[in-house]
Design a protein that fits this description.
Length: about 240
């Protein structure tokens, strides 16, 4: 049987809408009505706190949040607090690990490897740091990772800083880590990077690492396409 991945390339989506969309896709995947899915998108300014997050790591005041139009969500992934915003590629794989390796730690390392390889495409030496999840350039974090795995199907994923406004991290202690900095492709390369170009590289490395033989995109008869239409109509209502 050919192992297939459905790729969904979205623009900027409200965090709550994307979270609801993930939940719908998760149920479709659990029922085996669709293939594995990789969603790549951007969010408006958002802070998310994982299940074990220390709320003290949200240091921005109510005035700061309002001034910068930052939404805050408590969510069901692992990890502490992180930032999502324009210029950052967020990846949400909804995949059945039984068809790859039913191992949460190997899956986390796999997501890191996809981003490490993408950074390498830009001649950047990205790496893992012992004791921490995510991807780093020296002591600067370029990608955060936080996942949820239920019935061996994944949700949430990674946040990869491309052209991100890094000043938005000033309102939090990113991932609860006080002694390390954050960075982006733009900061490291000293130029703005084409978001679609980076998405394409991420997709190709994801396909290779997780051993997909075929990538499909949405069509009008696809259940996923129908779910997106539902979300857009609900947003209007």
């Amino acid at each position: 049987m050919i192992k297939k991945l459905t790729y969904i390339n979205l623009d900027t989506i409200d965090y709550k809408d994307a979270w609801d969309f993930q939940k719908r896709i998760f149920e479709l995947r659990y029922k085996n009505e669709i293939d594995d899915v990789l969603i790549l998108l951007e969010h408006p300014h958002t802070y998310t706190l994982g299940k074990t997050a220390d709320k003290e790591n949200l240091i921005g005041s109510e005035e700061y949040l309002k001034k910068n139009k930052i939404s805050v969500y408590d969510i069901d992934r692992g990890g502490d607090i992180t930032y999502h915003g324009p210029g950052q590629i967020v990846g949400y794989p909804v995949i059945n690990l039984n068809n790859w390796k039913p191992d949460t730690h190997k899956y986390l390392r796999g997501l890191e490897e996809v981003i490490i390889k993408t950074c390498s495409d830009y001649s950047l030496n990205a790496k893992r740091v012992d004791g921490y999840t995510g991807v780093w350039i020296e002591n600067r974090k370029i990608a955060a990772i936080g996942i949820k795995v239920s019935r061996w199907i994944t949700m949430h994923g990674f946040a990869f800083n491309v052209n991100t406004d890094l000043s938005m991290f000033n309102g939090i202690i990113p991932c609860g880590i006080k002694d390390k900095d954050v960075t982006s492709l733009q900061r490291e390369l000293e130029r703005e990077i084409d978001i679609d170009e980076v998405k394409e590289k991420l997709l190709n490395h994801f396909k290779e690492y997780f051993e997909y033989e075929q990538i499909n995109t949405m069509d009008e008869n696809n259940l996923i396409e129908k779910e997106i239409i539902k979300i857009k109509s609900e947003r209007v209502l």
